[in-house]
C-alpha cells in the first residue's frame, strides 16, 4: 500500500510539473482568453489574464476544455453582512460535479497577487484554496471589492491571498442573482445553481494545450 501511495504521489507531482512547464515553456501573449459559463440563470463571460497568471489560467482551462465544469454548480454564496469572519467578503463559489474538493488534477502553485498585479475587485474570478499551493478546480467570483483576499490580506491566516486570474466582462447581473439566492446557515445555496456548460471562446493559448 505504501508503494502504491508513493507511485500516486509521484504521478501527481509529475502532472503538476507538466502543467507548470506547459504554462511557461512559451511566453503567454497579452491577449486575454474568454470563457462562457452557461448557468441555469444565464451566461457569465470571463476574460482570463493569460499574461499575468498563466499557470492558474492554464489549470482552469484544462477543466473547461475537458468538460469537467459541465454539470457542476455554484454551490456557495458568501454575504458580507452575515459572514462570520473578522474580514467578511461577498463571493459566489463554483465547482465541478464532484464538489469543491475535486482534485482530479494535482494542486497548482499559488500565483500571488503580489506577483501578478491583479486584485480582488468586484467581478474578479479567483481560485479557492485551503493552504498555499492547494488550489485545484473550485473557483469563486467576487461580488464586492475584497482587498482582504489579496496578498497580505487577513481573510486567510497565512496572509498569502488567493490567485486572481481574470474578471467578468458580461453577466454580473447573473452573478448578483446567484449571490442573492436562498442559502442555509452554512452558506450553501439551496438549491445550487447548475453550470450547464463552460466553453472557451476562440482558441486555447498554445502554452495551455496538452
Mean pLDDT: 88
Structural class: alpha+beta
Strand content bin: 25-35%
* Uncertain stretches of 5 or more adjacent residues: 1-26
Number of H/I helices: 4
In N-to-C order, the SSE pattern is HEEHEEHEEEHE
Number of strands: 8
**Distance N terminus to C terminus?**
31 Å
Helix content estimate? 10-25%
Backbone shape: globular
Order of strands across the main sheet: 1-2-7-5-6-4-3-8
Please tell me how large the radius of gyration is. Answer: 16 Å
Largest sheet: 8 strands, antiparallel, barrel
Can you tell me about this structure?
- The protein is built from four helices and eight strands, in the order H-E-E-H-E-E-H-E-E-E-H-E.
- By secondary structure, it is an alpha+beta fold.
- It has an eight-stranded antiparallel barrel.
- Helix 1 crosses helix 2.
- It is globular and about 45 Å long.
- The two termini are 31 Å apart.
- The model is unreliable at 1-26 (pLDDT under 50).
Amino acid at each position: 500500500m505504501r508503494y502504491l501511495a508513493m507511485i500516486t504521489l509521484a504521478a501527481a507531482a509529475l502532472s503538476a510539473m507538466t502543467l507548470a512547464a506547459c504554462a511557461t515553456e512559451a511566453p503567454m501573449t497579452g491577449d486575454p482568453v474568454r470563457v462562457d459559463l452557461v448557468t441555469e440563470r444565464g451566461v457569465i463571460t470571463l476574460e482570463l489574464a493569460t499574461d499575468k497568471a498563466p499557470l492558474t489560467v492554464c489549470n482552469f482551462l484544462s477543466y473547461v476544455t475537458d468538460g469537467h465544469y459541465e454539470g457542476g454548480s455554484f454551490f456557495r454564496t458568501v454575504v458580507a453582512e452575515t459572514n462570520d469572519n473578522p474580514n467578511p467578503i461577498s463571493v459566489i463559489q463554483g465547482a465541478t460535479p464532484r464538489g469543491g474538493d475535486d482534485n482530479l488534477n494535482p494542486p497548482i502553485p499559488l500565483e500571488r497577487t503580489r506577483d501578478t498585479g491583479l486584485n480582488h475587485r468586484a467581478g474578479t474570478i479567483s481560485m479557492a484554496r485551503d493552504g498555499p499551493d492547494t488550489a485545484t478546480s473550485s473557483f469563486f467570483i467576487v461580488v464586492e471589492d475584497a482587498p482582504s483576499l489579496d496578498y497580505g490580506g487577513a481573510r486567510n491566516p497565512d496572509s498569502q491571498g488567493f490567485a486572481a486570474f481574470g474578471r467578468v466582462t458580461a453577466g454580473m447581473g447573473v452573478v448578483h442573482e446567484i449571490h442573492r439566492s436562498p442559502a442555509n446557515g452554512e452558506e450553501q445555496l439551496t438549491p445550487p445553481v447548475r453550470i450547464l456548460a463552460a466553453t472557451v471562446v476562440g482558441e486555447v493559448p498554445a502554452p495551455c494545450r496538452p
